[in-house]
Amino acid sequence: MWGTPLSKDDIAQVFQEYCRGTIGALPWSEMPLAPEASSIRGQLARINKLGYLTINSQPAVDGVSSQDAVFGWGPANGYVYQKAYLEFFVSAQGVDALVAQIKQSHPTVTYYAVNRAGDLRTNTQSEGPNAVTWGVFPGQEIVQPTVVEATSFMAWKDEAFALWSEWHALYPANSPSAQHLHEIQDTWFLMNIVENNFKAPESVFELFDKAPVMNGKTQCGTLA
Any signal peptide, and if so, which residues (predicted)? Predict the structure, then answer.
């Protein structure tokens, strides 16, 4: 399903094809990309081509009917909301570049980034949960089914990094495929970013306009 990747470019190509729908699963997802992600499929493929390997995402949603065929959930006659959210693997250099972009021009973006060893970076000012999905329904309190916070992120990172082992175990231990996959597992970061302004659906993707390309040759350069 995932071929024999001989470089990080090849690995990025696998993630890119998953976003485009030509590959039906990844170690982090046994199912194809969710229908709600269809509106950002092109943007996801673009950033995966750059080498930012996405494993979770959602687009911004601003007051869509709870009965909407794609984004709707919960009781009838309600409205649902989402903040744009991305979770991906990225090199330490990529983390530095994105953090710089966030500091410079994206004040409403928050992030967590952690490597396999547990070294955590974040710009959040509170350890409390950040609701990224919520719904408003007649006669009910606001419902917040999906939140981002440090404790669950740190618990998830162990499993997220462990899943690389399932992939590189498919190849001989000393093969280029196994070595590249193992290097990502051991040295890259798991990062999530939230655009807290849910009325700015493209903002989270604009972060990658000047981000360095994480390729297997130089791991440098920017998107033209």
Answer: none
